[in-house]
């Protein structure tokens, strides 16, 4: 699993760079974010949650049946909406509350 950043959507805010715990994301000469070592991404989704431009897609690994399926996140008030597109065209949405999602 890893992320892919769409440089056309990236506005260069740098939020993903700040939150990546592995310091894997950098800016290119056009101030667009890119992931330097995608093989080192462990899929924490922190960058996904911070990107307001939906420029980051998170590709699910083949080991969990990913086969091209990906997630992206859209902020909607206090909620995050997780959109999943599977390789066979199915779509799924899950909403989480930013403040409540870490409560047990
Ligand atoms: S958070 Fe999104 S818009 Fe901001 S630099 Fe990263 S990819 Fe670009
Ligand atoms: S998913 Fe986590 S580890 Fe991977 S690039 Fe984003 S912030 Fe870094």
Number of strands: 7
The biggest beta sheet reads: 5 strands, antiparallel
- Percent range for helical residues? under 10%
Poorly predicted ranges (pLDDT <50, ≥5 residues)? none
Ions, cofactors, ligands: which are bound?
A: iron/sulfur cluster
**Morphology:** globular
Mean pLDDT: 90
**Count of the separate structural domains:** 1
Strand content bin: 25-35%
What is the string of helix and strand elements? EHEEHEEEE
The CATH C-level name is: Alpha Beta
Protein topology:
Blueprint: E1 2-5, H1 15-19, E2 25-27, E3 33-35, H2 46-50, E4 56-59, E5 70-76, E6 79-85, E7 91-97
Antiparallel strand pairs: 1-4, 2-3, 4-5, 5-6, 6-7
The structure holds iron/sulfur cluster (SF4) (2 copies).
Residues 3, 19-22, 24-25, 35, 41-47 line the site of one iron/sulfur cluster.
InterPro entries: 4Fe4S_Fe-S-bd, 4Fe4S_Fe_S_CS, Fe-S_Ferredoxin
Domain 4Fe-4S ferredoxin-type: 1-30, 31-61
Organism: Clostridium neuense
Structural description of this entry:
With 104 residues, the chain is mainly β. A five-stranded antiparallel β-sheet has the order 1-4-5-6-7. It has a two-stranded antiparallel ribbon with strand order 2-3. The protein has a single domain, classed as Alpha-Beta Plaits. The model has no long low-confidence stretch (mean pLDDT 90). The protein is built from two helices and seven strands.
